[in-house]
Amino acid sequence: MTVGVAVPEWTGTVIERVTFGQALRDTAALAGRGLTRFRHNPHQLVDVIVVPIVFTIMFANIFGGAVSGSVTDYLPQLVPGVAVSVAVTTSVITGVQLREDMDTGVFDRFISLPIARVAPLAGLLIADTFRYLIATVVSLTVGVALGYRPDSVIGALAATLLTVFAAFSISWIFALMGVLMSKASAVQGISMLILMPLTFTSNAYVPTETMPGWMQRVADVNPVSHLVSAYRDLADGLTVSADLGWTLLGTVAIIAIIAPITVRTYLRRV
Fold first, then answer.
1. Domain span holding position 236
2. What are the phi and psi torsion angles at 116 (to 5°)?
3. By the 8 A CB rule, do 119 and 26 touch?
C-alpha cells in the first residue's frame, strides 16, 4: 500500500509515493511532536487537569445532597459523568488546533517536507488522545480521593479506555469542522453549542427520571447518556450492557464515516 507524499505544487515535481509503513512512521513522528508541544507548553493541559478537579469537587458538594442525599452516594453518579463530559468537550480542541495550524502556516511547512500528506492530521489526532486520557484519569482520581470506590478496578480501566476511544472518534467530527471552517473561533463556538446541550440533557449529572417527559426521552437516546451508562456498568462490576454496545457501534460508525470524509477534505485543502 502506498500513500501520497506532500510535495509543493510550485516545484513541478511529480508527487511521490511512500509505503504504508513509512506513513505510520511519519504519523508517529508528528504525534511525538504534539506530545513535545504539551511538555514545552504545559498550559495547554490546564483544561484537562483543572476542569475535572473543579467540576468533581464543585458538583459533588453542590448537587450531592440534593440528588442522592450525600456526597458519597452521589459520586457513582457524578464521577463517570464528569469523566465523559470533560473528555468529550476536550475533543473540540482538535478542530481548533487544526484550524490554527492551517491559518498560521504550520501545515504549509509540513507539506513541503517529504512525508505522507495525511501524517500531520493523523499525528494531531493521535497526540490529542493523551489529553483525553489525562482528563479521564484525573476525574477518576479526584473521585477516588472524595470517596468514590468502583466495584471493579479492571472495569474502571476499561471504562477509561472506552471514554478515550469515544473522545477520539468524536474528535474526527471537530477535525472536519476545523478543515471546513474559516476561523478557529467559529469551530470552538459552534462545537460548544452542540456539546453543551448534549452533555446537560443526558444522565451525566442527574437521573433522567427527574426530567420532564420530553427531555427524558431525549436524554434516553442521547449518545452521551449511553457512554456514561456504559462507564458506570463497567466500573460497577465489569458489566457488558446494551449501552456499551450502542457506544461501540456509534464510535466505530463515526470513524468509518467521518474519518474518510475528513481525510479527503483535508487532502484537497492542502
1. 2-269
2. -60, 135
3. yes
